[in-house]
Amino acid sequence: MIMSMNTPIKDHPANPFEGEAPGILFGLPMPMARAMKLSGERIGDDRAQIRMGFQPDQANSRGDVHGGAIASLLDCALASACRSHDPTAFGVATIDLTLHYVSAGRGDLIATAHCERRGRSISFARGEVRSEDGTLVALATGTFKLMARGGAQA
After folding, report:
1. Judging by beta carbons within 10 Å of its beta carbon (0-12, 13-18, 19+), is residue 26 exposed, middle or buried?
2. CA distance linking residue 124 with residue 116, whole number of Å
3. pTM of the prediction?
4. pLDDT tens profile 29-69
5. Closest by alpha carbon to 142, among 83, 98, 76, 77?
6. Strand 136-148 and strand 24-25: pairing?
7. Burial level of 78, CB count in 10 A (0-12/13-18/19+)?
8. Taking Cα atoms as reference points, which of 9, 84, 87, 13 lies closest to residue 49?
9. How far apart are CA 108 and CA 37, in angstroms?
10. Which end of the chain has fewer beta carbons closer than 10 Å to its terminal beta carbon, N or C?
11. pLDDT band, residue 22 (cuts 50/70/90)
């Protein structure tokens, strides 16, 4: 299946982590996920989709979603795509993240990401953020280091 980056993932299997407590993102504790209202919607097959529920604390001076919040959403989505082959066995550290802001983000935002290449310990991903009405908000590419949790092999 080829994923089009211009629409949220719809034909992907249901999220095995559905109903996670706030502060947990695809099986890993992440207090920032609670603070930013991040919820993992889909993960697997080198892909991830995360929703960020808008809250006034995320707004910039114009009332749009602040670029830093959008960057954090993309960082989480790309990192999740890189560990989607075994989400609970791996943590991820961001090595590099490049963003291009395309338009203002308003309301809830949805990030979709795809792991383009996974090596033994380094992975490369790309992704995008769209508003609920489908407006493209931002594009990103990133490089991530996989870190085994417990006894997993990277």
Report:
1. buried
2. 6
3. 0.84
4. 788 888 889 988 998 999 999 999 998 888 898 989 999 99
5. 98
6. unpaired
7. buried
8. 9
9. 10
10. N
11. confident
91 within 8 A of 28, measured Cβ to Cβ: yes
Domain map (residue ranges) of the chain: 24-148
Please report where in the chains the tokens 């395309």 appear, as a residue.
102
* Whether 70 contacts 137, CB under 8 Å: yes
Give me the sign of the Cα torsion angle 111, 13, 96, 34. Answer: positive
**How would DSSP label each residue in the chain?**
-PPPTTS---SSPPPTTTTPPTTEETTEE-HHHHHTTEEEEEEETTEEEEEE---GGGB-TTSSBPHHHHHHHHHHHHHHHHTTTSTTTEEEEEEEEEEEE-S---SSEEEEEEEEEE-SSEEEEEEEEEETT--EEEEEEEEEEEEE-TT---
- The structure tokens listed for 148 are 């085994």
- Which CATH superfamily includes the segment(s) 24-148? Hotdog Thioesterase (3.10.129.10)
